[in-house]
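Bench notes, afternoon.
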Amino acid sequence: MFNTNLSTNHSTRTISHPFKSLRRGVAMVAAIVMLVTVLAMPAYPQTPAATLRMIDPQSGYQYATVEIFSTASNAFGFWARVWMNGTTKLRTAVPFKTNSDGSIAMWFIEYSYYQGAPLDTHYWTETYSGQVLLTMATATATSIDGFMIITAQMVGYQRVAITDQWRAIRLTA
């Protein structure tokens, strides 16, 4: 009833797989695409085009260092990284419009970072967000006055609106 003969006689044969050369070609194309992508990426970390101090215009107290970076990703051609002094907080600020008086409006997101690897964004945690207004009408070759306000705080995974006051700032060389 049942075949109890478990012995088999297999001959070894080499089968030419019809897709073998296709797989090799796809792998080569993928490697070339990856190489070109890596070569086209900007160096990390980027080098700032300028470094400024953010001070309180009344007291002269410096509460942040601002790095300005060139970019093609917005019409203004720049974005900023603001290192808040004495903390493990930084803000990334991006301009989004020019007002009728010539001032530049920017939004920012504040992050808490790991002090051992401040540029590693894997360790960044969003804490606040807000706006910056740079008053270009009174700007000089060495300073730009403006205002900054925090408008939201991260609570869990949501931004919650908060009431804050505009703070006067001055960016100086």
